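hi!! sorry for the late reply, been swamped w classes. u asked for the two structures so here they r. pasted raw, havent cleaned anything up. first the sequence of the first protein and right below it the tokens
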Amino acid sequence: MAGGAAGRTFYQIWLADKATYPLFLTMGCGIALLTFRLYHASTPPEVTFSKKNRGDFSHWTESDGKEAAKQGENFRNHPVRNFFKTVKPSIMPDLNDTMSK
């Protein structure tokens, strides 16, 4: 007995059926979101992966605190947040403008 996919290609199994397109789109968006979140969670100034940086206490205790404040500000104001500062906070801004007149 052969399985259901015996002798069929990847295209015949997945891409010929148009019902699988939302699945690929959803998985792609999920992987992109996961990648962005993983990058964002591992790049703040407080996260260190090497033992050398973790053992260096001057990294954690700065005398004036200005450098830490600058690093925190740069981390908080990432490009995605800056993009959404320029966009109107509505789903359909043109429709809202038309309906409010």
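now the second protein. again sequence first, tokens right under
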Amino acid sequence: MAWNDSLLIDPDGFVGKAPLLNSGAWTWITTMFGMPIFSVFAYRAAPRNCPSCSCGTNGNNSKIVGGEEAEIGQYPWMVALYYSNRFICGGTLINDRYVLTAAHCVFGSDRSRFRVKFLMHDRLVPKEDSFERKVSYIMTNWFVNVLVFITNDVALLKLSEPVPLGDTITPICLPPEGDSYAGKEGIVTGWGKRGDGSFPMQLQEVHVPILANEECHNQTQYFRFQINDRMICAGYKDGQKDSCQGDSGGPLHVYDPDANRYVIAGVVSWGFGCAQPGFPGIYARVNRFISWINFNTRDACLCH
């Protein structure tokens, strides 16, 4: 086999070159000289008939203008990911059946121990309409290089049953391919560590500038090889504000004032410390994975 051969393994153990897939779960294994270097779990599903729905909007149609604690209901696609009853990461509802999160949040874990919690604002005092779903499948597409820098840090969680979409809960919009979002304002939401080292119970939001990758290469302390085109660099070069531990897997939003809706530009991935000068946060660039996301969520109801 060549260094870049790819195999598919179905749930029954069949191994072969990539065929046309019917419905079902498969694992893609990429090899180097016959040795596996990383795998991608993929799920090809049948499409459904779905009613029309909107993405990236919320009940009050308002835009966060600043502050620390997010408004209740402002981000109805935001989810809290629990493992063995312990909060570990954030995530984002992208349609009625799938949540997008970071691969490092779920890799190597037992899916039966996950719970995805919706309409959460205060993790200590859940809202009356909060609910949860189990996870049926975990699909990852990640790779860690020899220097332990994560790339392809995205994962899809298939929910045990669809989420009822409506005014209370809506998915976020997926981004168009090709937009770098450089120069735009990003909004990160999560329950991650604050500047004083404490972990908040209430959902927090922070606004950060999105940098061009070339700017991240030349004007920060990162080495050029650490940042590739599947990543977004966002934050202040002198520190100030950043995502932090506990925010992993959550969304980096961009607000479109013309369409009055949010899109998910990135997924909180990694960085050196939190709000450290010279080290902005690093996010998985979602529009580099649109084909993979669309391929693996064909059984979902998509909103536009």
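hope this helps!! also noticed smth abt the second:
The chain is about 5% helix and 35% strand.
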